[in-house]
Amino acid sequence: MVQLLLPIIYISFISLGLPDSLLGSAWPSMYPALGVPVSYAGLISMIISFGTIVSSLNSDRLTRALGTGKVTALSVGMTAAALFGFSVSTQFWMLCLWAVPYGLGAGSVDAALNNYVALHYKSRHMSWLHCMWGIGTMISPMVMGRVLAGGGPWTTGYRCIALFQILLSAVLFFSLPLWQGRTAGTDAEAASPQVLSLGQVFRLPGAREVMLCFFCYCALETTAGLWASSYLTLTKGVAADTAASFASLFYIGITAGRAACGFLTLKFNDTQMIRMGQCILAAGVLALLLPGPQVLALCGLVLVGLGCAPIYPSIIHSTPEHFGADRSQAVIGIQMASAYVGNLAMPPLFGLLANNITPALFPFYLLALLVFMAFMHEQLVRKTSRC
């Protein structure tokens, strides 16, 4: 019966990816209907990000109080309610209101499931777990696109995804006995029943390093996904439709790369996987930097996606090894919060640089984040190996 949990966890991560790309795909149809400027998507995104930061920082307390299964079921139920709320919204302020449970639900389930898989499953399952997230990010734009192409309103697209989330919530609630059977008597629960404060987490050797490492990775991934198409068009002279297709290949590269990484983890450990990803990332950034034919820059972008593939899941999976199973939930909560701060702050910063200086800074910006991330990761390995 315990083996039934793994497909449920995979489906849960598909559900986590579904809302992440839905707003971007629907917004061109949403803002004219709502009568707001196109830039207002950033306000909704910020509210969602703040909610995920808050819930990530409190994930340790919630998970210890309720257990991973209940946190996952309640969080998915929260996002389902928020998506349904989006589907019945007729005013922009209503979207802002529903964005609060949208973000709070996403942060809790992200931290809880990542820690659960890091504690109970092999590294390959962490890679495949995040591959499922990538599948979710590809499904929701396809659903929204079909609805819009058929002449339906954007609200119908949101309602379709909300119904899937509601169905998944029911499955998760019915699966609660499986979670209890799996988590009872785990080393993590037995070793440290108390909740760690933020101050206690920050004082752990390597905590600041892993936080900054995660911040830089997520800042790099989000910046690449948001600005790659503009860089290719404005700096490399790539046609807009070609640039858009290769920007989508960045996410396809991450998803396919994580599927492949699940098999590579049979031979390489988490630290080796992270270093491998950083080397591939460096090759991709170098291809973006070098003058040459457009195909060189296009291939560079795909390499950046492939390089990103092993880093996020491997950092998460190595957390219990670096900090101990009893502290991993608290540390992963901090990591998730750092990730969303990076997502929130760094892509807009590059937008200011591109607008006021030049979009040609794009590969240099990625390179700076990569170098700092690699340095912080090596410091993390050095500090935690002493403990």
UniProtKB/TrEMBL annotation:
<dbReference type="InterPro" id="IPR036259">
    <property type="entry name" value="MFS_trans_sf"/>
</dbReference>
<feature type="transmembrane region" description="Helical">
    <location>
        <begin position="210"/>
        <end position="228"/>
    </location>
</feature>
<keyword id="KW-0812">Transmembrane</keyword>
<feature type="transmembrane region" description="Helical">
    <location>
        <begin position="99"/>
        <end position="119"/>
    </location>
</feature>
<feature type="transmembrane region" description="Helical">
    <location>
        <begin position="280"/>
        <end position="312"/>
    </location>
</feature>
<feature type="transmembrane region" description="Helical">
    <location>
        <begin position="131"/>
        <end position="149"/>
    </location>
</feature>
<keyword id="KW-0472">Membrane</keyword>
<dbReference type="InterPro" id="IPR020846">
    <property type="entry name" value="MFS_dom"/>
</dbReference>
<feature type="transmembrane region" description="Helical">
    <location>
        <begin position="357"/>
        <end position="376"/>
    </location>
</feature>
<keyword id="KW-1133">Transmembrane helix</keyword>
<dbReference type="GO" id="GO:0022857">
    <property type="term" value="F:transmembrane transporter activity"/>
</dbReference>
<protein>
    <submittedName>
        <fullName>MFS transporter</fullName>
    </submittedName>
</protein>
<dbReference type="GO" id="GO:0005886">
    <property type="term" value="C:plasma membrane"/>
</dbReference>
<dbReference type="InterPro" id="IPR011701">
    <property type="entry name" value="MFS"/>
</dbReference>
<feature type="transmembrane region" description="Helical">
    <location>
        <begin position="71"/>
        <end position="93"/>
    </location>
</feature>
<feature type="transmembrane region" description="Helical">
    <location>
        <begin position="40"/>
        <end position="59"/>
    </location>
</feature>
<dbReference type="InterPro" id="IPR051788">
    <property type="entry name" value="MFS_Transporter"/>
</dbReference>
<keyword id="KW-0813">Transport</keyword>
<feature type="domain" description="Major facilitator superfamily (MFS) profile">
    <location>
        <begin position="5"/>
        <end position="386"/>
    </location>
</feature>
<feature type="transmembrane region" description="Helical">
    <location>
        <begin position="161"/>
        <end position="179"/>
    </location>
</feature>
<comment type="similarity">
    <text>Belongs to the major facilitator superfamily.</text>
</comment>
<dbReference type="Pfam" id="PF07690">
    <property type="entry name" value="MFS_1"/>
</dbReference>
<feature type="transmembrane region" description="Helical">
    <location>
        <begin position="248"/>
        <end position="268"/>
    </location>
</feature>
